[in-house]
Amino acid sequence: MKRGLRALVAGLSMLGVTAIGQAIELTADVKGFVDEMVSKHQFDRAELTGLLQQARFRQDIIDAITRPAEAKPWYQYRPIFLTSARAEGGATFWSNNRDDLQKAGELYGVPPEIIAAIIGVETRYGANTGRHRVLDALSTLAFGYPPRSRFFRKELEQFLLMAREEGMTPTRPKGSYAGALGKAQFIPSSFRAYAVDFDGDGKRDLWDSNADAIGSVANYFVRHGWRPGEPVTVRAGAAGASHQRFVDAGMKPSIRVKDLYAAGITTAARLDPAALTSLIKLETEDGHEYWLGLHNFYVITRYNHSNLYAMAVYQLSQEILAIKRASEAEYVSH
Predict the structure, then answer these.
(1) Can you tell me the distance from the alpha carbon of 58 to that of 133, in angstroms, rounded to the nearest whole number?
(2) pTM of this prediction?
(3) Which CATH code, of 1.10.8.350, 3.70.10.10, 1.10.260.40, 1.10.287.3510, is assigned to 12-57+130-180?
């Protein structure tokens, strides 16, 4: 703790520093961040300096954020998350946490299979909550990744506030390359806003408490507008290149279902003609498939702003539900 704030990374892309763990020269941008934390949130300057000097630039984090899985086509993205092991793991997670999932469903209206699928996609039910120190990840991205430096600078601020509020040692938590935390992979601002103490032990623990992870995911969904009992998505039939204008309208539901019907698109289940939806185009190995992104589908994309992500969560949830129902049916038959 003798080198000030050199560990907060500034202008790494311009400096060309690539060694993992390299400390970076103190700059005006970094000094400004420290000044802001002191004046805005009453952090002690010496204590904050002592903490931040322990952060290290991670080139592997920069590399990872420039090649996200969501950049893959659907036919390559889907097999990452839609595996028999992940589906069976979800059914096991459901069985092992039945009471908490039922409680979350009753309190928030979010189905257990959706909650399980989120945790399954994010961390394989807690098996992989991340290997990067959150302090390193957020410092690297806040000051060494110009395309999103403003966003990650705010998340670094939120992380320091979160650690202070929750009584955490900021150098200890580990998470994803983007600074996401725990089994639910909440970024620090989401942790502060949506994490809940669902097991009633007086702390919000997304690492070791399945109950807190379950309740926090459900709370996140409700706070983003989840509508209990409504469908998520349905396959769109008779859709093709002539409907590209609907795809181009974006992921937020803005098209009346009746307008898609009028354009020749069909669905196996008849939907409310007045409901708003989006038209989702997914690339397959031999062409494309189309789906309607209804309101609750859009809510899933608030967790990760990607149609691919939301579709993976939905389809995994349906596989988990099918396994659970089959298991229960077999139990009843015996």
Answers:
(1) 10
(2) 0.91
(3) 1.10.8.350
